[in-house]
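Summary for the lay section of the report: proteins are chains of building blocks that fold into shapes. Here we show the chain for Zn-dependent peptidase and then a coded description of the shape we predicted for it.
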Amino acid sequence: MTLNHQHQLELLKDILSNHQTDCCGSVAECEQLERLVKSLMVNQHIHSSMKPLLENVYSYSQNGKNAGNLNQHIQSHQSQLSEWVADMNHFS
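The coded shape description reads as follows.
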């Protein structure tokens, strides 16, 4: 079953919210974020003004999966995580 762009956005927000709330995460979650962002970036239903936000999330996820200490990486991005989720709520 394929997720539509609304479901993908909700999943993206859920993972980012969990990172923000729990201050921890997994490499698999970072990889899932990457897949979601890639799919959303090519989706014609996503507003173009959301693309920079998605690019930031993609960079965050790439850096996170390659970080020596993923939990520290997540903790250092707490304010961005909150902002990204809030911004996504404006688009959905």
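Put simply, here is one thing we learned. The CA atoms of residues 11 and 36 lie 8 Å apart.
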